[in-house]
Amino acid sequence: MLVLLAAAFTALLGIDQAGTVLLGALGWMVALAARLPVLGSAGRLHAVRRRDTIIATVSGATDEVVRLALVLVTVNGAASALWAGFGWALAALVFVAATELTAFTWPLGRQATEQLKAQGGFVSTHPVHSAVRGLVAISFHLGATSLLTAGPWWVLATAAAHVSVNVAFARWARSRLVPVEVFGAVVSAGLVLAGLLSTGVLG
């Protein structure tokens, strides 16, 4: 799926801004590192729901602050924003795949695993489910990154969307997976539509 999307981006956007993929991936890694102190502190809480809610909220807000910095420093135009969003999504999906496939034992790995669990990132039981979840994640990051190019104030909207999706997964995915997945898909679709409209890709 990622390969097909990269090929589509190359055909539609060209490769002039393709290097922004690496900056997008770097942005996601910076966001992950920025969350680690909170993950470590929240991990000591005995109240699981409170812990997961704190992690989900801080993670969503931190991601969007870092994403805004990425856009302000590196993004220049619609093509650049889409490539950067693709890089961000690529790093996130690789992290999810790695976390699902192996049990980390080193400190960073344990904190990263807690981060994934707090956002409903348990192992998918069907390839179609994994593909749909991946597509939703890609749409979210493409949309959020593109929307921020329209103005830094949009970080309030992207942060609210990110926190809402994270908290929904953290609190209800284990008992109400389908409604939570649908909610995430609707939010992602709204973001990608708003992002594409704001950058002029759709008119």
| Poorly predicted segments | 119-123
Helix content: over 70%
Number of helices: 8
Helix/strand order, N-terminal first: HHHHHHHH
Structure description:
With 203 residues, the protein is mainly alpha-helical. Helices cover 79% and strands 0% of the residues. The protein has helices at residues 2-13, 20-42, 48-74, 78-101, 107-118, 127-148, 155-172, 177-198.
Task: Write a brief caption for the model.
The chain is built from eight helices and no strands. The chain is mainly alpha-helical.
List strands and helices in order, with pairings.
Blueprint: H1 2-13, H2 20-42, H3 48-74, H4 78-101, H5 107-118, H6 127-148, H7 155-172, H8 177-198
Helix pairs in contact: 1-4, 2-3, 2-4, 2-5, 3-7, 4-6, 6-8, 7-8
What features would you highlight for this structure?
8 helices; globular; 79% helix; 203 residues; mainly alpha
